[in-house]
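User: Reviewer 2 asked us to show a designed sequence for the structure in our supplementary figure. I'm pasting the structure tokens here. Could you produce the per-position amino acids so we can include them in the response letter?
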């Protein structure tokens, strides 16, 4: 297991997420379509790749990231084209026949910007062409279509084509999932680095996703994190004493593999100059970790992209306050909402989406919100708030 900080991990670099992967297969076996929900950087794409790389018998997983689609047609076009891609055909050659061989009567004559002309002369738009492909599949295998960055796609469509089109895409997906004939052959898994629930709620489309089986990806437990740290240290030839592992765990607090990898990588770099590991060296490694702007920038960028001007300024100020004061009470939130002329309902919704997307979490005992991750809090305080 090498240090991998940023891209999704695969193969030997994937650290055990057995529970989540098992749950995915169980739900698929039950014909349930899935929404994998977890805040940014928790490891969703890596889990999808695990499903893709090691499918159960009789399943053919397809992985597609639709983030660059800005309108409804483009979404279907991407999906359709992906089904035809060389890479995909190659990947299933080993399991059985090629994808096109699985399609019984279908011949594609011409593919253009607006749609697809089939051998029988039928000209269909990409959505209908996709549905036709699926309908004509031989049913000995189930196709699992994993759509990464689906929430971002919906957000793009809202922005560039309008709410109506975004709702129409959600509705079509819902209809495909409800269609028994199509559902027999195709299952969908959706995920994304922003919460689908909050994006969809904003356009009153929750009813179109309430049939999805929700799989949550939690951070690692302390024991899991300990094992993960030990494994990475072993494989990268450096040693951390038990007390230092405990210290690191206490500092990271929100134990996602990403922060663990990032900080261990920095610790190892520092060890080259100073082989004695102590708490202050670990603290310095944390300081250095948050200097990697590119690992954290997206937290601010996605917020700016997802919210209108004043709503963004309000959300940013809530996070600035929280990063400087460790916590924020509801009363302070309502003061900031007044300042930005944000209505009570809208302010509640924005705070809700900050929770969904993993920025903050409500601590019942303190009756206030805190950053989910102290590492992100440190980064935000240093780079955005001050
Ligand atoms: N199972 C795992 N084993 C080892 N490292 C992991 C694992 N899952 C995630 N990571 C670490 O987290 C990083 C991000 O993983 P991944 O891209 O899968 O997360 P994500 O939830 O899809 O992120 P985003 O929300 O930005 O799309 C990886 O580069 C790696 O450092
Ligand atoms: Mg991802």
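Assistant: Here is a per-position design you can include in the supplement:
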């Amino acid at each position: 297991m090498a240090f991998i900080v940023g891209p999704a991990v695969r193969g030997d670099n994937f650290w055990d997420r057995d529970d989540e992967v098992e749950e995915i297969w169980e739900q698929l076996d039950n014909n349930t379509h899935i929404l994998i929900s977890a805040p940014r950087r928790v490891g969703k794409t890596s889990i999808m790749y695990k499903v893709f790389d090691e499918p159960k018998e009789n399943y053919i997983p397809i992985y597609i990231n639709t983030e660059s689609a800005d309108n409804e047609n483009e979404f279907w076009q991407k999906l359709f084209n992906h089904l035809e891609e060389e890479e995909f055909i190659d990947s299933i050659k080993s399991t059985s026949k090629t994808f096109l061989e699985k399609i019984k009567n279908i011949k594609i004559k011409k593919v253009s910007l607006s749609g697809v002309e089939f051998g029988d002369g039928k000209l269909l738009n990409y959505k209908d062409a996709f549905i036709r492909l699926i309908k004509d599949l031989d049913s000995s295998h189930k196709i699992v279509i994993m759509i990464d960055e689906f929430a971002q796609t919906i957000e793009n469509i809202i922005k560039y084509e309008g709410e109506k089109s975004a709702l129409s895409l959600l509705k079509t997906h819902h209809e495909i999932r409800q269609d028994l004939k199509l559902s027999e052959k195709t299952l969908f898994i959706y995920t994304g680095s922003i919460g689908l629930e909050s994006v969809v709620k904003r356009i009153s489309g929750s009813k179109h996703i309430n049939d999805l089986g929700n799989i949550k990806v939690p951070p690692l437990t302390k024991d899991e994190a300990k094992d993960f740290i030990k494994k990475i240290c072993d494989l990268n030839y450096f040693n951390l004493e038990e007390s230092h592992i405990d210290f690191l765990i206490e500092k990271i607090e929100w134990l996602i593999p990403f922060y663990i990898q990032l900080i261990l990588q920095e610790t190892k770099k520092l060890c080259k100059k100073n082989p004695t590991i102590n708490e202050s060296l670990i603290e310095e490694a944390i300081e250095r970790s948050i200097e990697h702007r590119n690992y954290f920038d997206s937290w601010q960028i996605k917020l700016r992209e997802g919210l209108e001007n004043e709503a963004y300024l309000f959300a940013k100020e809530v996070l600035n306050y929280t990063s400087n004061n460790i916590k924020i009470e509801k009363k302070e939130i309502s003061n900031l909402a007044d300042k930005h002329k944000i209505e009570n309902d809208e302010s509640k919704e924005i705070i809700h989406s900050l929770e969904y997307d993993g920025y903050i979490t409500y601590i019942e005992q303190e009756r206030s919100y805190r950053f989910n991750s102290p590492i992100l809090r440190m980064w935000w305080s240093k780079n955005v708030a001050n």
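For the response letter, you might also mention the following. Residues 44-45, 148, 193 surround magnesium ion (ligand 2) (CB under 6 Å). The longest strand covers residues 59-65.
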